[in-house]
Amino acid sequence: MSKRTVFTTITALPAGITRETVTETLHNHFEMIDLNPLVIERHPIKAPRKASPEEFHSIWYHVVDKINYFPGYTGRTEFDVCFHDLNNGLQTHVYAPLGLDIKDKWTLGGTLPHEPKEPVEIGLGVPKDGLWLREDVDMRCNIVATSFVKKTLKKAHGTLVERLVEKAHIRETELHNHRLGEQHSNSILSYYSDPRSPGMGTPMHSPNPSQPMHNVNAYPNAMQVHPSLDHRGSLGKVPNSYSPPTGGMQQAFVDPRYSQSTLDSRYSQPPPDPRYSQPPMQSQDVRMMDQAYNPVELPSSTAPSKPRTVELDSLSAQSRRS
After folding, report:
1. Contacts of 34 by beta carbon, 8 Å cutoff, 6+ apart
2. How many CB atoms lie within 10 A of CB 256?
3. What is the three-class DSSP state of 104?
4. Helices and strands (H, E) in the chain, number of each type
5. 97, 149 in Cβ contact below 8 A?
6. DSSP 199
7. Among residues 220, 280, 278, 210, which one has the least CA distance to residue 252?
8. Burial class (CB within 10 angstroms; exposed 0-12, middle 13-18, buried 19+) of 18
9. Which residues of 62-91 are buried (b: 16+ CB within 10 A; e: fewer)?
10. pLDDT of residue 236
11. Neighbours of 204 (CB within 10 A)
12. DSSP secondary structure of 46-92
């Protein structure tokens, strides 16, 4: 003889846990099965023949529980269970031996501080602020084992919810640190990509064509940047017509007194340093250089050539006599 038992358990979730994190955990079937302290084995299976038409297309698993029936004696219980995801929760249906049938529904409800308030169900102790997790159990079991099954189920699911909350805390911490890292990286990238910031190696450019680009040639030299300084380094008077460039490709004002064409020629090149300059060459040095590179030829009437001529003439006269 079986008995139907229905009970509801509501657990208030601590602050700092978002709706998305809890929903993600509820829709992770392996994680929901592993959070149950009774489970020692699980693997997915196809829908059994006994599945109803609505449950045939759900996701099915074969689960093995280790149950402590009484002190000193434990046993294994194998059963099939189907999972069906909802927008705000999860539905499960357990087909266990001895006619045990458990329909479980997990629902995430409540409101966050930035969300509008909603009316809550009375008589169940539903929190009026913050998120909460509701479990509705519809169980059919042998009348003899109903009390034991209900006690075991509540204890196991209580541990499951505690682990789920801790898992949500860990997940929220990871997401928070990840968002901080992204914000830090984006701030660095935006700093170096901003044309107004002097980024390391970043060219000064304007991403918007409608905005004028900074003219790097507006100030070719220091004379044009500071027209109040003349080429001698003394302070002069700023002309009344001087005005800095207003932006775009407009050329800066150039004082004609200090333009390159009007500068004195003696300032176009620095004067030579007397310490390193050479004195002009004298005429005597020029003559010495000419003698060194242009040797002087001896005249034909010199002493060495005359004896040679006389000797030739005497030889010719003797030949005629003989």
Report:
1. 42
2. 8
3. strand
4. 6, 7
5. no
6. -
7. 220
8. middle
9. ebebeeeeeeeeeeeeebbbbbeeeeebbb
10. 47
11. 13
12. PPPTT--TTTTTSEEEEEEEEEEEETTEEEEEEEEEEEEEETTEEEE
Q: Which residues contact 322 (CB under 8 A, 6 or more apart)?
A: none
- CB contact at 8 A, 42 and 180: no
Three-state SS at 316: helix
User: pLDDT in tens for each of the 322 residues of the chain?
Assistant: 789 999 999 999 988 888 999 999 999 999 999 999 999 999 999 999 989 999 999 999 999 999 998 888 889 999 999 999 999 999 999 999 988 999 999 999 998 888 888 888 888 888 888 999 999 999 999 999 999 999 999 999 999 999 999 988 888 888 878 778 777 777 777 766 666 655 544 444 545 555 555 444 444 454 444 554 444 444 444 445 555 555 544 455 556 665 555 555 555 566 666 666 555 555 555 555 555 555 555 555 544 545 554 454 555 555 555 4
Instruction: Give the span between the Cα atoms of 150 and 157, in whole angstroms.
Output: 11
Q: How many CB atoms lie within 10 A of CB 244?
A: 11
Task: Tell me how far apart the alpha carbons of residues 322 and 318 are, in angstroms, rounded to a whole number.
Answer: 6
State how far the Cα of 220 lies from the Cα of 45, in Å rounded to an integer.
Answer: 79
Q: Hey, CA dihedral for 183, 187, 193, 195, is it positive or negative?
A: positive
Residue 66 tokens, joined: 């280790």
CB atoms within 10 A of CB 226: 13
Tell me how far the alpha carbon of residue 251 is from its chain's centroid: 39
pTM of structure: 0.56
What single DSSP character describes residue 39?
Answer: E
In the prediction, which pLDDT does 76 show?
Answer: 92
165, 160, 168, 164: which is closest to 38 by C-alpha?
160
Angstrom distance (rounded) from CA 151 to CA 75: 17
